[in-house]
Amino acid sequence: MTATTDRPQAPELLATGHRRLLEQLRADGVRFLFGNPGSSEEGLLDEIARFPDIDYVLGLQEAAVVSTADGYAQATGRPGVVLLHSGVGLGNAVGSLYHALHRQTPMLVMAGEAGVAYDALEAHMSVNLVDIAKPVTKYATRATHPDSLLRLVRRCLKVAATPPRGPVFLALPQDVLDQISGEPVVPTTVPDTRVVPEPGAIQAAARSLAGAHTPVILAGDGIAASGAVGELTRFAEIWGAVVYGAMASELLMPWTHPLWGGLTGHMFGDSSASLVAQADAVLICGTYVFPDVFPDLENPFRPGATVVHVDLDPYAIAKNHPVTTGMLGDPRLTLHALTGALEEAMTDPQRHAATERVHRRTVQRTAEVDRALNDDLGAGRNADSAPLRMTAVAAALAAVLPDDAIVFDEALTNSPALTRWLPPARPGHFFQTPGGTLGVGIPGAIGAKIAHPERTVVGFTGDGGGMYTCQALWTAAHHRIGAKFVICHNGGYQLLKDNLEQYRQEHDDDPGAAFPPFFDVREPRVDYVNLAAGMGVPAARARHAAELPTILRTMLDHDGPYLVEAVLDDPGDTP
């Protein structure tokens, strides 16, 4: 990545709030400041040019800026730092902040404003920034004095990085930053939260789980944040339980593992509840139950089922439904302790039964995967003349993508095909939107590439989602960030069509009717090749499978950002 400009060193005697803030960020190892500039941050923007070790990543629209910082934070595990412009900039960013809050992305978002002195005047662009930010952040506050500026910055960084992690907001009045700040610069202290329940509680929970016949595990991003992928996988193997990801956007266990059951839905509660309906014991770890748009209001667990909930967020434990045991603890340490206690608590017949469950699941899962891949291959036999399918795109990409590549997946309805051929298997190499906010795929991939410039990064999105943050393509071209992008172009909002079909079936409401015309994005059809070119990113359009090997190889070999528009058939045109 290239620097925005050649930057002279700052005079050491300059000690306004502008300089002190940047010195604080430097002390905390912040290398990138993601932003879109505005007039209420002029002094800070001018000061950034004197800090050659903090690179300003310029974006053209705030939703894209926040999502780029989100991708960077996901890929590094460290807070992304964002600078926005007043109420209009923060307002544009709210949707992306909602996404960051629900996937618990550590992030410090700052917005400049004219000054505290002007509050009573209700001047142009005057608005209560803290009130705007509160619903979509973990913590929101405003600096009002130069000698409390740095403690607020440190507090925000601490809150953002402390589990449950999340975005925080700090309003920066320019007249506060213009003043001399006497605060010392010291690194932020983030508390160590790697706690584990006391041994008696662990042993009691293990005894309650040991005799399960139909166990299920529900896991979330708390597993990834804790680095507990190995511990979760080991526990599932010992217990003989299928694992489902609930509100999961990172790898929780290898998707190639036979005990991986996939993701719960995020739309309809009865679909999620069906996953645990027959379970006599459930372990919930690193998430809450259930994160659906239309949740099931009834208790999803069968009567008498043992439910153990482990999380570092006490609010998440038993948040919506009763549990048998709730334990506050770090997922990695707690799962490690629980695995040892479970091995001691299980009898020989119980161990044998768990082994048999794993064996049956392995046979079943192997058959399911083979059948799905064979169906994909069968559907592609006449691929040269038939419309392009996502399975062909994913299979062709799997043949050429490096083993250490990072995938940022917002393919949504095309994600199942993508992950069949590119199953996530390594922590830190796969990120996925948990749903709720469109437009995270392109900027998320850019942020991940900034975090790991040595790796190949490919971001996937749809023709609907891509339009929300297409401005991020310019950022990739401007800073020469070599992320790659695939647009799954099926001419409309396929997810809406799928959800409407289910809604109609549940309500017996004319399931064969045509879809609303505003579910399509065709007249005119968005031309992503020319759109990307207009942003400075070369692109190619793929219509047939035979074109894919050459196009994808060109994409990967290109020194810089590159976009492929995959023109897919639209199976949702008619129900």
Automatic annotation (TrEMBL):
Q: Keyword Membrane, does the record have it?
A: no
Q: Which domain of life is it from?
A: Bacteria
Query: Which keywords, in A-to-Z order, does the entry hold?
Result: Thiamine pyrophosphate
**Pfam families noted in UniProt:** TPP_enzyme_C (PF02775), TPP_enzyme_M (PF00205), TPP_enzyme_N (PF02776)
Q: Which InterPro entries match?
A: DHS-like_NAD/FAD-binding_dom (IPR029035), THDP-binding (IPR029061), Thiamin_PyroP_enz_cen_dom (IPR012000), Thiamin_PyroP_enz_TPP-bd_dom (IPR012001), TPP-bd_CS (IPR000399), TPP_enz (IPR045229), TPP_enzyme_TPP-bd (IPR011766)
Q: Where is the Thiamine pyrophosphate enzyme TPP-binding domain?
A: 420-565
Domain Thiamine pyrophosphate enzyme central: start-end pairs: 202-338
- Report domain Thiamine pyrophosphate enzyme N-terminal TPP-binding positions: 16-120
Q: Does the keyword Transport belong to this entry?
A: no
Report the family membership.
Belongs to the TPP enzyme family.
**Protein name (database record):** Thiamine pyrophosphate-binding protein
Source organism of the structure: Actinoplanes flavus
